[in-house]
Amino acid sequence: MRRLSGFTLTALTFGFAFLYIPILLLILYSFNESRLVTVWGGFSLKWYGELLRNESYLRAAWVTLRVGLVTATLATFIALFAAITLVRRRRFFGRTLFTGMIYTPLVMPEVMMGLSLALLFVSLGVDRGMVTIILAHTTFATAFASVVISSRLVDVDPSLEEAAMDLGCSPTLAFIKVLLPVIAPAVAAAWLLAFTLSLDDLVIATFVAGPSATTLPMKVFSQVRLGVTPEVNALSTLLIALVSVSVMTLALVHKRVARPMA
Questions:
Q1: How far is CA 97 from CA 13, 78, 86, 93, in A?
Q2: For residues 141-177, b (16+ Cβ closer than 10 Å) or e, as one string?
Q3: What's the pLDDT score for residue 249?
Q4: Is the pLDDT at 2 greater than 80, yes or no?
Q5: Please, what sign has the CA dihedral across residues 197, 203, 204, 210?
Q6: Could you say which of 4, 25, 207, 260 is the most buried, measured as most Cβ atoms within 10 Å of its Cβ?
Q7: Dihedral of CA 74/78/81/82: which sign?
Q8: Confidence band for 29, pLDDT divided at 50, 70 and 90
Q9: Contact indicator for 56, 119 with CB cutoff of 8 Å
Q10: How many contiguous H segments (helices) and E segments (strands) does the chain have?
Q11: Residue 26 neighbours by CB distance under 10 Å
């Protein structure tokens, strides 16, 4: 096993410090007694209580969660059949156009996409709100979900479905009983990616959201523009804790499932 050189070790140290020290400071100051986020006034949990009593943050979090769940489900459903069409049907009329429509959101700037969708909704007379946010998020999340599912579908042997149909399965039953279980991990990963992208989006939601629907990133951004508050630190700490627990739980589940297969 090769030992790390001094330069590599130094670069890694500074790199990890640059990434994680700000996060650790944010977590530390979420327990600060003082309202001034840069002045330590003693240990306290009061800002977590203030956060839980802040109705504007709670409403924004509820809107964000609903938008994320619906967006991830719709995007994964569309991406699944889009990936099957692209991978299994090599040649059909309009394939190039269809491929471009699926993958264009991957490279399109978010500002351009948000502006174009806002103009579309205005021209159609659609009131901007939670529905328009879901439609906008589904538009770009479908592209990312399609990439994930397609990458797994390429490695699946089509003869598995053909064998199932030779044994009497209909194409639909072969898809449900043979293909879907094989690509289920990729479908789950696509759903989680779409959900994460929806939770994280700020730019597109800013264009397509109305006064009746404010997502959590929009709320935090508008608050930070006026100055960082202890409630923002507390909210960020809770999100970091949620993500950390989720990742560790998934890692333990994967390890436990993979152990019998070894």
A1: 47, 17, 11, 9
A2: bbbbbbbbbbebbeebeeeebeebeeeebeeeebbee
A3: 82
A4: no
A5: positive
A6: 207
A7: negative
A8: confident
A9: no
A10: 12, 0
A11: 17
Alpha-carbon gap, residue 16 to 24, rounded angstroms:
12
What does the DSSP assignment read for 167-220? TT--HHHHIIIIIHHHHHHHHHHHHHHHHHHHHH--HHHHHH--TT---HHHHH
Residue given tokens 């598995």 in the structure block: 160
Paired residues of 43 in beta bridges: 32
- Pull the structure tokens for residue 118: 């806002």
Q: Please indicate whether residue 92 or residue 239 has the higher confidence score (pLDDT).
A: 239
C-alpha separations of 82 from 103, 134, 192, 218, 232 in Å = 11, 19, 18, 31, 39
**Which pLDDT tens digit goes with each residue over 137-164?**
999 999 999 999 998 888 877 777 778 7
d(CA 210, CA 127): 8
What is the rounded distance in angstroms from the CA atom of residue 209 to the CA atom of residue 184? 33
| CA-based nearest residue to 75, from 153, 146, 128, 147 | 146
> 127: which DSSP letter?
P
Q: Answer for the pair 97, 245: CB distance below 8 angstroms, yes or no.
A: no
Q: Per-residue confidence at 179, pLDDT binned at 50, 70, 90?
A: confident
